[in-house]
Amino acid sequence: MAHRPLTLVYRQKFVIDSLNESAQIKRRIADQCVPQVIKAIDLIIDAFNKKKKILLCGNGGSAADAQHLATEFVIRLSPKIQRPGLPAIALTTDSSTLTAGANDLGFENVFARSVEALGEAGDVLIGLSTSGNSESVNRAFQKAKEKKMTTIGLLGNDGGRSKDLVDLAIIVPSCDTQRIQEGHITIGHIIFQEVEQEMFGQVVPEAPPASRA
Question: How confident is the prediction for the chain on average, in pLDDT?
Answer without folding.
Answer: 94
